[in-house]
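Retro notes, item 3 of 5
We never archived the inputs for the manganese (II) ion complex last cycle. Fixing that now. Sequence and ligand:
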Amino acid sequence: MKIHRAAARPTKTAPTDKFTGQVFQDEVLVGQPPSRMRATNVTFNPGARTAWHQHPVGQTLLAVSGIGRVQVEGGEVEELFPGDTAIIPPNTRHWHGAAPNRIFTHLAMSETGDNGAGTEWFEKVSDDQYQ
Ligand code: MN
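Structure as it came back at the time:
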């Protein structure tokens, strides 16, 4: 068994080319083969969100606290509340983040693709798309 102590894993600030607003990432797990699992606890300041992106094997988001937003391209913007789980299909463009006036934390879980491919990133989510 391995225990990763929280104090030994500082919170990272998410890169500004892939996120709008201030976003913090706490790594939970980077699975070692044969596991492909990746889990990150992500906190978005009010109004902060990811850019458009997609995951090769999809993604599961567990809303932990606050109020969030998620949208799959072509669908409605949905609100996420603590305890809600959003399941994003493979290779489907989407974004997720906080509501405009509430901080939001979710546990993001995904797997890398057959060739080790991770998240594919696209353009940022405009204010119009976010609203
Ligand atoms: Mn995602």
